[in-house]
Amino acid sequence: MNFPPVINMYLVKSEGPKLVPFFKATCVYFVLWLPTSSPSWFSALIKCLPIFCLWVFLLAHGINFLVSHRSASRILAGLIFSAVGDAFLIWQEQGYFIHGLLMFAITHILYSSAFGMKPLDLKAGLLMGLVSSSCYAFLYSYLSGPFTYLVAVYIALIGFMGWRAVAGVQLCNDLWTWTKLSACIGAMLFMVSDLTIALNKFCFPVPYSRFIIMATYYAAQMLIALSAVESRDEEDFRKRS
After folding, report:
1. What are the two backbone dihedrals, phi and then psi, of residue 173, each rounded to the nearest 5 degrees?
2. Whole-angstrom Cα distance, residue 8 to residue 88?
3. Are the C-beta atoms of residues 119 and 167 closer than 8 Å to each other?
4. How much is the pTM?
5. d(CA 106, CA 233)
6. CB 134 within 8 A of CB 172
7. CB 110 within 8 A of CB 81
8. Residues of the chain with confidence (pLDDT) below 70
């Protein structure tokens, strides 16, 4: 169901203040811009802090809300695995890249489950399959050892997650909501972030790669977290009207 404009405005006003800690934590990360050449627990904390704020953002809607809305609880679980993955990637040059990859693979499975399988939208699935296959075909010649199949599995998982997010947005049928659109944009940004990581790590240096990766990543996580709150905010609006 698509919300009328007055409800959409209420949702923006009600959720905006709850995201202030996230925006502040993101600013701290970019202002400090700690060197990746010297990994530490402090740099891991600063990198994970915006994701911690998104945990709090979802928890602020109440435990009962998370328990009664499985999609929201799965997104929270995905954010938890994301933070663990972020910490592993701080030490990726010390051999923890695969550990981070595994954590984010679980994240994409959780997000896919949260977005659900309805509507199916096979056209969107085919398109996402072509995009994912093209990305892997380009990366393939640069991959070796276990990354040859690990990257293939990871691309399949994030491509599936992207399909489920895109499928939820039916603009032509006027069945979209702002939260479904948020999930869709978030999933696309996540794919851009991860593709930039892959290109920079396996293929060639990408100019401003770290900024591109982190800016799109934080935006993606925020938008996906926002997609979890639709049911609660609509209910609150009805009560106040």
Report:
1. -95, 5
2. 38
3. yes
4. 0.92
5. 28
6. no
7. yes
8. 1-13, 171-176, 230-241
